[in-house]
Automatic annotation (TrEMBL):
Entry-linked InterPro entries: SAM-dependent_MTases_sf
Keyword check for Transferase: yes
Pfam families membership: Methyltransf_23
Protein name (record): Class I SAM-dependent DNA methyltransferase
A GO molecular function held by the record: methyltransferase activity
UniProt superkingdom: Bacteria
Signal sequence range: none
Alphabetic keyword roster: Methyltransferase, Transferase
Gene3D superfamilies xref list: Vaccinia Virus protein VP39 (3.40.50.150)
Organism: Dyella halodurans
Record-level GO BP terms: methylation
Length: 203
């Protein structure tokens, strides 16, 4: 049976004190870290963000608090999230795999995808990554957990893959790891020194 990302799902995993795995303060720190990484490598302020699998668009407010003029575009497969927040928070309806064909009229300085990839089947994941690489001007924040991590939260449909599996999938589309779930797009390849690349031995 397919998972349903309705209001009850978001209430449980994002707001209920017994299940929510991140606090608003933690989210603000994470957003600040990611924006700092992107701006360091871009050499300027982040102007545009694509948030893939954004749910209710929780990244939008802390992003706009840091950079008030930022352009935020969210995408999610939840009909509930798009119906409720689509207009107010600029969230469109799309599955991850649709990024293979979906394009906008500009590339994005920052692409965010948190807590999504480890629930996807390989074919959809690889298809969507091609779109992320093509649409990325700067840095992608791809927060994904592996077979080597202690994972809290929703385990329904979780794929416990090896870190090397994801590094290969990211590398196949030209995404270069630079630490803390951040990956440089192919257009920034020349801006990264050898020891800035966050590599992990296979296991």
């Amino acid at each position: 049976m397919a998972k349903i990302y309705d209001r009850a799902y978001f209430d449980k995993w994002y707001r209920h004190p017994d299940h929510a795995v991140a606090s608003p303060a933690e989210l603000r720190r994470k957003v600040a870290m990611v924006v700092g990484q992107a701006e360091y490598y871009l050499g300027r302020a982040v102007r545009s963000v694509l948030d893939v699998g954004c749910g209710e668009g929780t990244w939008r407010a802390p992003l706009r608090a840091l950079r008030p003029g930022i352009h935020y575009q969210g995408l999610d497969a939840s009909e509930y999230a798009v119906m409720r927040y689509g207009t107010r928070r600029n969230i469109g309806l799309a599955r991850f795999g649709q990024l293979e064909q979906l394009r906008f009229d500009h590339r994005f300085d920052l692409i965010v995808c948190t807590d999504v990839l480890h629930y996807l089947k390989p074919a959809e994941l690889r298809a969507g990554l091609m779109g992320i690489s093509d649409m990325l001007e700067g840095v992608a924040f791809l927060e994904v957990f592996t077979s080597r991590d202690g994972v809290d939260g929703d385990m329904d449909g979780f794929h416990a893959r090896a870190p090397s599996w994801y590094l290969k999938a990211f590398g196949d589309v030209g995404l270069l790891p630079c630490g803390s779930h951040c990956y440089l797009g192919p257009r920034l390849d020349r801006r990264i020194a050898a020891l800035e690349r966050a590599q992990m031995p296979p296991r």
